[in-house]
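Consider the following assembly input.
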Amino acid sequence: MAEETLDAESKAPLTRSSSELTHLADLYRQMFLIRRLEEEAARAYSTGKIGGFLHLYIGQEAVGVGAIAALKKDDYVITTYRDHGIAIAKGMSSRALMAELYGKVTGCSKGLGGSMHMFDKDHHMLGGYGIVGGHIPLAAGVAFASKYRNDGRVTLCFFGEGAVSIGGFHEGLSLAALWKLPIVFICENNEYSMGTPLSRSMSVEDVSMKALGYGIDRDRFFCEDVLEVERRIGEAVLRARETSMPTLVEVRTYRFRGHSMSDPAKYRTQAELDEHKGRDPVHRARADLKTRGFVEARVAELEASVEAEVADAVKFAEESAEPEAALLAETTYDGPFAS
Amino acid sequence: MATRQLRYREALREAMIEEMERDPNVFLMGEEVGHYQGAYKVSEGMLEKFGDKRVVDTPIAESGFAGIGVGAAMVGLRPIIEFMTWNFSAVAFDQILNNAAKVRQMSGGQFSCPIVFRGPNASARQVGSQHSHAMEHFYATVPGLKVVAPAFPKDAKGLMKAAIRDDNPVLVMESETLYSVKGDVPDDLSDVVIGKAQIARPGKDVTLIAYSRATHIALDAATALEKVGISAEVVDLRSLRPLDEDTICDSVRRTHRAVVVHEGWPYGGVGAEIVDRIQRLAFDSLEAPVLRVTTLDVGMPYNAKLEQLCMPQTARVVAAVTKVVARGRA
Ligand SMILES: Cc1ncc(C[n+]2csc(CCOP(=O)(O)OP(=O)(O)O)c2C)c(N)n1
């Protein structure tokens, strides 16, 4: 390999304008950050510092990062319990995320929510939800409010293909279509709903077909390139923003870990997993950065800054205080109440 | 009669297997019950034994498959519907409330609904606000439903068999934290019937009334209380509806004091119902107000310490008993 220096980089031919390259670098940084945060979270889980359920997003980072890159700052995002990556992509700090996983009062939800419930009002991250499909009508409600107030915002609603069988999905889509709400429904089809492959949970193979009955637009693609995710979701976001019409987008992806930390994932073969890992969108973005002109030294610098951020987040979480019991009443009702 | 040591989950599985072998109309349906061998391994091996006609994996569609169960039961099948956890039954509440519980009366008694709904209930560990619900309180309020909540492997097996044979909808509240608990399971389970409580530990100074995991908390508390000279009797309800008020009140008439222990919120819960029965039926025997030790009246927090604070604990039971016993003894 040729000696790579910052000097060499300045001479390298750019296939994209430098601002586009910076953009890709930014997306790569987000994806790498999410991956590293979750790897550390898995480690902390194995030593009992994080408890309950922990559903990792590893392998799917490019979906959340690419999709959210297509948004404006004030747009809304809402998702399932598999929410760490989406919260980070929407702007939540690494510290707030890690502290929440540790159950600390400095976490985004003061340590009361945990892994499945990442909320960040300042960044319009409306949370992760634990009941499959339950948040889909809620997302339509957020879009309803945007239309009601004419605030020009778009809502992105993420869910797995397992959610497509439940009533909440159908009622949410049906109402969003009927009332022409500015929302994009993003089905992250990672092929398995817990241990159930899509072939045993749906009568058709193409999730996006569900849009047909509701008369809304649809899209369907493999998540390989984060920029392609951004572009495709961007079309749906534009449709929502300019014509207030919902879209159902099926993004085909794969989770590299078990459903949650307690799932040994015996329902798939190592060969299948390896094949998907060979097409890891995070590695792809790294490689693209380099072919498009980013030298190894700059990538390494970026990765070092991520490592520092992750280490800082873990230290912050470790050292933070636990929530006080007084929080329980305050977060149950607004104002005094009779019990 | 032979007796074996079984885990709670094995006892449930045995009950289902025996009933499925006995009656071809019995089948098991739910998420991950087959190929995955059960989210909590209760149905392990059952797909291999009975095939996918009788051990049916479903998509995530609780309202759908609960309704499928009710419809199939109306025309003669005897479904066992597993909820991966009872939390998710909230999505199917309409089917249970409006169809399973009502079809007998709505049809003037022409149709019955011999169905079992089952799964783990109440808190696990740090699974947060949406996954820690004690759902029995919602269901026990509904006429037309029976609700059971076994604490021991023997009762898990006996009540599961009784539930499958019952011609009414029976809801079996299991517990993730009990699945690995071992206990003696005799071949003869004729004393385990729906609607009958048991004295899990005899005592004379106070009655602790509990069910499911809380029975184990009550037993721990009784052991702790013994050390300070208080003899606590533990009534393990087993069945929440119908409720065995005779066993409860007989015990209270002897001890004159009672503390109810359960998971779930205090407001309008099963404990409130028990307190009502005691004050109506055993008023003259009471020496102290009946107290309840329940989950605190807030949603379940994720933080481990706060979760422990919210859940009923042995120490809280001991404290409540100490108060109750102090009354009228000055
Ligand atoms: C209503 C309901 N039923 C069951 C569950 C248990 N559960 C949690 S996640 C899950 C699988 C979901 O798969 P999918 O929607 O494909 O999303 P993924 O986990 O793959 O991201 C199940 C069955 C639940 N949380 N809510």
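The CA atoms of residues 5 and 297 of chain A lie 6 Å apart. Ask yourself how this observation constrains the way the partners meet.
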